[in-house]
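A.,

Following up on our hallway conversation. Structure tokens first:
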């Protein structure tokens, strides 16, 4: 994915302005920055769920435009802080999303089973989504996202509302899956301790701009974990 001169203006205020940003196949990038920096708005725009005010977004050289927006959007999956599961069974949440994308019934059932299993929640398949704990619901959301077999995965603070032990086991599991799948991922977080589990590079966003972008080592330095109080946009 390659982005150029991407801007979003809302009520005459600039929400973000990105001269140039790329996310190459297999790259895992954390997007960090303070509240209100524009991370969610940028993620939604890159995922083609919001339109930019100006600028271009390309996937494999194809320029995103009104006539191919839906097709391109189907190559991406997004997981938010709230799991946004539909009020139906866990299995149906996955198969319904796949059926909407024209996946056949048998294939949809097989993929749903596979990904629920990968995220350790195969036994929850018959349960109603609304009866799940926060951690279970996020595992199901991740399984649903991977079942789409997206080219790019967008994660917007998916663990922010989970308790610490739940979050940690999920970070480990998701990190392993991202590596195994070589999944191209943009991961928004305000918690730096999550970054090394999921991302190899970090983009720092401040007041609507990407002010730093590089490998975790370049951005944070060698002894990042000993310096948790460091503020990278300062
Ligand atoms: N629909 C909207 N209309 C106007 N302003 C918005 C809208 N959505 C977000 N904003 C503003 O854009 C800025 C960036 O918000 P957001 O992308 O949610 O930041 P972050 O995710 O980094 O906390 C904030 O100042 C927010 O108030
Ligand atoms: Mg946000």
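Then the amino acids I'd put at each of the 234 positions:
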């Amino acid at each position: 994915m390659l982005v150029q001169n991407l801007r979003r203006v809302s009520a005459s205020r600039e929400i973000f302005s990105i001269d140039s940003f790329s996310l190459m196949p297999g790259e895992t990038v954390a997007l960090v920055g303070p509240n209100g920096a524009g991370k969610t708005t940028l993620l939604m725009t890159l995922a083609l769920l919001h339109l930019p005010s100006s600028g271009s977004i390309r996937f494999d050289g194809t320029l995103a435009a009104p006539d191919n927006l839906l097709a391109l959007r189907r190559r991406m999956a997004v997981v938010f802080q709230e799991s946004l599961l539909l009020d139906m069974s866990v299995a149906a949440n996955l198969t319904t999303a796949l059926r909407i994308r024209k996946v056949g019934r048998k294939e949809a059932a097989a993929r749903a089973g596979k990904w629920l299993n990968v995220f350790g929640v195969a036994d929850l398949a018959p349960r109603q989504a609304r009866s799940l704990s926060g951690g279970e619901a996020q595992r199901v959301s991740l399984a649903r996202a991977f079942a789409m077999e997206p080219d790019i995965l967008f994660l917007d603070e998916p663990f922010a509302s989970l308790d610490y032990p739940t979050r940690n086991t999920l970070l480990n599991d998701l990190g392993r899956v991202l590596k195994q799948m070589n999944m191209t991922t943009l991961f928004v977080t305000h918690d730096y301790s999550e970054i090394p589990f999921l991302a190899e590079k970090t983009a720092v966003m401040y007041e609507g701009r990407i002010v730093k972008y590089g490998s975790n080592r370049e951005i944070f330095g060698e002894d990042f974990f000993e310096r948790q109080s460091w503020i990278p946009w300062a």
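The beta strands are 2-10, 13-22, 28-32, 54-59, 62-63, 76-79, 152-156, 184-188, 201-206, 209-215. Curious whether your intuition agrees with the design.

B.
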